[in-house]
Amino acid sequence: MDILLLIQAVIMGIVEGITEFLPISSTGYLILSADLMGFWTKDKVDLFIVVVQLGAILAVIYDYWGRLWQALTGLVTGKSDVMSNPRQLGLSLIIATIPVMLIGFTFADEIKTYLFNPITVAIMLIIGGLLIFYVENRPKTIIANEAEDVSFKTALKIGLFQCLALIPGTSRSGATIIGALWLGVSRKASAEFSFFLGIPVIIGAGLLDLLKHHEVLTNSEDWLVLGVGTVVSFIVALLCIRWLVAWVSRRDFKIFAWLRIITGIVVLVAAWGFGYQFAG
Question: How far apart are the C-alpha atoms of 177 and 23, rounded to whole Å?
Fold first, then answer.
């Protein structure tokens, strides 16, 4: 058993759990972390990065089970509560999921082949940071205070924003949260809608990638490494979700914009200024 490999898997799980729901690109930071640590082979890293996100999204299901169950039963029964509209939430999530499912499943292999590299991540981190500043400085009119209030039209637009996150470094959470804010959804509702929207996308992508590329895991140790990373990401994400909701209820996202831009610049300087050769 390679203890160093397990320690690296734990670190990767921590990175995923912290970054998945922040607008800073969990995939981007996972790619950079794996490259800096020399973690695993490229084909195993590519699979790990997609599958480890299942742990983080299971934390959302655990933490929001009550509201998610209401949304699911609302879809089946067609009923809504007096104080909220869980059926509309369920339908909005389905509508918002369609664009990224169509594009992601069609071009998944091409995206991993050509865009899963540190330079792409660095460029998109910087561009995303600048977009956060732009959206945060725009005047806003709130059209939805809760995730259950997001209309079908708004949900479709958020779903189109989510497609940008297929490019590593963009951030699925960042694209959906900032897109929702741009459209007039409240901060809290933007964050929670983004959490919920990640459930079908991340589960679908993770299981599909595991089904298509499971042969790269050649022994029980490989599966253990993947399992450790996934469990750690679940635990860490569970600790981070409520903190993020509390944060966005009181503050803006500009600190994350600075983090994205600084990280992107450091990576580009390392690549071009000092000739650092990235493994990816």
Answer: 7
Compute φ and ψ for 144, nearest 5 degrees: -150, 115
Cβ-Cβ contacts under 8 Å for 263 (sequence gap 6 or more): 24, 29, 32, 122, 125
Per-position DSSP letters for 143-159, written without gaps between them: SBSSGGG--HHHHHHHH
What is the DSSP annotation of 143-207?
SBSSGGG--HHHHHHHHHHHHGGGSTTS-HHHHHHHHHHHHTB-HHHHHHHHHHHHHHHHHHHHH
Looking up tokens 């929001």, which residue turns up?
64
d(CA 220, CA 223): 5
Identify the CA nearest to 37 among candidates 78, 73, 4: 4
Residue 125 corresponds to which amino acid? Answer: L
**Residue 144, strand partner residues:** 185
Q: Render pLDDT for 48-97 as a digit per residue (tens, 0 to 9).
A: 999 999 999 999 999 999 999 988 888 888 766 645 688 899 999 999 99
User: Helices (DSSP H) in the chain: which residue ranges?
Assistant: 3-19, 26-37, 42-51, 53-63, 65-77, 86-115, 118-137, 152-163, 172-183, 187-213, 220-250, 254-268
Q: Are 13 and 228 in contact (CB under 8 A)?
A: yes
Question: What per-residue string of b and e applies to 88-120 under the rule 16 or more CB within 10 Å gives b?
Answer: bbbbbbebbbebbbeebeeebeebbeebbbbbb
Token pair, residue 162, equals: 């989510």
Distances (CA, A) of 186 to 143, 155, 206: 8, 14, 29
| Residues 143-168: tens digit of each pLDDT | 999 999 999 999 999 999 999 988 98
pTM of the model: 0.87
